[in-house]
Fold this sequence. Notes:
- By secondary structure, this protein is mainly beta.
- 0% of the residues lie in helices and 61% in strands.
- The protein has a 7-stranded antiparallel beta sheet with strand order 4-3-2-1-7-6-5, with no helix packed on it.
Amino acid sequence: HEQELYSQRSKLLRFRDGEWKERGTGEAKLLKHKDTGKIRFLLRQEKTMKIVANFVVEQAPYCQLMPNAGSAKCWVWSCLDWADGVQVAEQFALK
């Protein structure tokens, strides 16, 4: 079981093929596992409930939040995402 630490409606973008592409809009959540203490980021697309981001918040070099150049409301990070059932290194931005 997990405890919800944070939840906010957000738009998730993924960097692919040299540009930012929208991945989905929904509740961005930080969830803490009650036994292991690990924190996970989860975002489901609000209309379809499809998981568009699902990863454990880890230490460097992953999950280091950085402000996106040119936008005070957008944060960027890299992670090992499991949203599509296999581990993939991704670069995400959240508005």
